[in-house]
Specification:
The protein folds into 2 domains: about 70 residues, no CATH class; about 80 residues, no CATH class. The N and C termini lie far apart (about 55 Å). Helix content is about 50%, strand content about 10%. A hairpin with a 2-residue loop joins strand 2 and strand 3. The strands form 2 sheets. It has a 3-stranded antiparallel beta sheet, sandwiched between helices. It contains 7 helices and 5 strands; from the N terminus they run ααααβααββββα. The protein is mostly helical. Helix 1 packs across helix 2 and helix 3 packs across helix 4.
Length: about 160
């Protein structure tokens, strides 16, 4: 099955550049094939290595991707012209009006209606929101383009 794919072509088509990526070429190769359903054993045969090594390379690649996402989310939160601190104990239903008020003040339009915004906050906050209650302090950012970022805030009180 792995023979059906030209890895160089897959990486070129996706715009992979080892000099600009947090992934090594080997990590990118493994991810490209795994995302197409190729088994680790087949990738190991193709690359002349063990399945355990392919598993390790894949795990490292996925960890690097997650770290890159976290870095981008952090940078976006810093750049967001609107930052709203939502403290633990806040009712999720109170969040949209707080975000909209802050956006009105900054003259930024949010790209989400209230129900969508609550769902986005709940989904991105993970276990920091339970039911309708915010369990951990959150920092909600809104970019100039109206995109919403949600981050758990270790020191939300300092932002207020």
């Amino acid at each position: 099955m792995s023979g059906e794919y030209d890895v160089d072509e897959l990486l070129d088509r996706a715009g992979f550049d080892a000099d600009d990526s947090v992934l090594t070429r080997r990590q990118a190769e493994v991810l490209a094939l795994r995302e197409r359903g190729v088994a680790q054993a087949a990738i190991a045969d193709r690359l002349g290595t063990s399945r355990a090594n392919v598993s390790s390379v894949e795990a490292s690649a996925r960890e690097n991707v997650e770290k890159a996402r976290e870095t981008v989310a952090f940078a976006e939160a810093l750049r967001a012209p609107v930052r709203v601190v939502v403290t633990a104990g806040t009712d999720l239903y109170d969040v949209p009006s707080r975000v909209y008020d802050a956006c009105d003040e900054a003259r930024v339009k949010v790209n989400h209606a209230a129900p969508e915004l609550m769902k986005r906050v709940s989904d991105e906050a993970g276990d920091a929101v339970e039911g309708r209650e915010v369990q951990e302090d959150l920092l909600i950012g809104v970019t100039t383009g109206g995109e919403v970022t949600v981050r758990k805030s270790r020191e939300a009180g300092a932002e207020a």
